[in-house]
Design a protein that fits this description.
This protein is of the alpha/beta class. It has helices spanning 12-21, 43-59, 70-83, 92-102, 114-119, 121-129, 143-148, 155-169, 187-194, 203-217, 241-251, and strands at residues 2-6, 27-31, 64-67, 88-90, 107-112, 134-139, 175-179, 199-202, 232-236, 258-259. It starts with a strand and ends with a strand. The protein binds D-glutamic acid.
Length: 260
Amino acid sequence: MIGIFDSGIGGMTVARAIEQLLPEYSLVYYGDIARTPYGPKSPKTITDYSIRNTEFLLGKGAELIIIACNTASSVATLALRERFQVPIIEVVTPAASRAISSSKNGRIGVIGTKATVKSGIYQRTITAERPGFKVYSEPCPLLVPLVEENWLNKRETKMILRRYLHPLKDKQIDTLVLGCTHYPLLKELIQHRIGKQVTLIDSSIETAQYVKEFLLHNPTLISRQGQEEVKHSYYVSDCTETAMKVAQRIFSRPMELTLA
Ligand code: DGL
């Protein structure tokens, strides 16, 4: 079974992409809605939460963990890999590598939470492979609460986006990484604001593709695949009406979120 966690509902964009690309696999999701957002918190707190989320998923039978959160991927991946035996897949590497192959002019923008941007992870990952590339990162701390509140098409959200994207407008970027799994829900607004000449990289889609390839190379990893009914379970640490609405919007179907 594939285990997936996020600070809230944003990681469901990854879960949905996995459901679509790998329909033969069961998955269990944990959204830590009670503690969202992770972005403004310290690396130690984010790591502690990530350890607990992983323990929860392993308790449910996960054999592979996907950190469906750029923030936790940025600061907690090493700690999780040291502590747990199962493979841990993060979302930064797949998104960074797609950004590299997509950019023609070597100028890449990244938007993410404060913790992700402060970690410098995209800058390091991209320039390690392409030293000449320029990476311009902007923290967008208000976007996660806006998505969790289902304020996806409000005037205020558009105003805030305009302000956040403004510094990137004159950097001549040709590629922009949505470095937070909540941001695909704002994709159209972001594309409109940054301009259609800029290619958006969605870490959710890139991660699902990466997981598919990983499982092709590790066919025996998920032991019960094909032998029992495929199950998709969605757990949350707090269940609000708004979370249900956003979840239904992501999956385009009624969603059952179980409180755990
Ligand atoms: N979806 C998480 C990410 O990709 C949001 C982090 C947060 O809770 O601030 O970074």
